[in-house]
Amino acid sequence: MAACDTFRSGAVEQPHTHARRLQIPIFEKGYEKDPDIVAKEAVQETSRNGSDVVLVDTAGRMQDNEPLMRALSKLIYVNCPDLVLFIGEAIVWNDDKLADLSPSPSSRLIDGILLTKFDTIDDNIMGHGSGPGPMWFQ
């Protein structure tokens, strides 16, 4: 697991807790580092250790926050991952924003969406599947 949210307070410590509970190694370089480079070094370290899977934990982002989504796009471009999952909250009225994750014809952004915290208000239920890839519900 690579701790690539290098800006938010507590973001490096949080993956340590998960990695310890899952009994998997954690790769981190601390705060105020370039997440693209941290992810790239984590992949290189993982390859040297004979593993073939790296879970990269990045900064949380709202899909309608253009600067953060550009940063995610750069991380994907620099590292060429096999699978990119967007993990988002399944709150009512959020489904319109999931459509914004559709990549342009010339770029790849995400491969699928994992929705958490399933939400309902009155007769409205989020999760009808308007995103760019398969959707998983937790």
The amount of helix comes to 25-40%
What is the count of helical runs? 4
Rounded to the nearest angstrom, the radius of gyration is 16 Å
Number of strands: 7
Tell me what portion of residues adopts beta-strand conformation. 15-25%
The largest β sheet comes out as:
3 strands, parallel
Sheet with the most strands: spatial strand order: 3-4-7
Structural class, by secondary structure, is alpha/beta
Q: Are there runs of 5+ residues with pLDDT below 50, and where? A: 127-131
Calculate the mean pLDDT score and round it: 77
Characterize the overall form: globular
**N-to-C SSE string, H for helix and E for strand:** EHHEHEHEEEE
Query: Termini distance?
Result: 20 Å
What features would you describe in this structure?
- With 138 residues, the protein is of the alpha/beta class.
- It has helices at residues 13-22, 35-48, 66-79, 95-98, and strands at 2-3, 56-57, 85-89, 112-116, 120-121, 124-125, 135-137.
- Strand 5 and strand 6 (124-125) form a beta hairpin.
- Helix 2 runs parallel beside helix 3 (66-79).
- Residues 127-131 have low confidence and may be disordered.
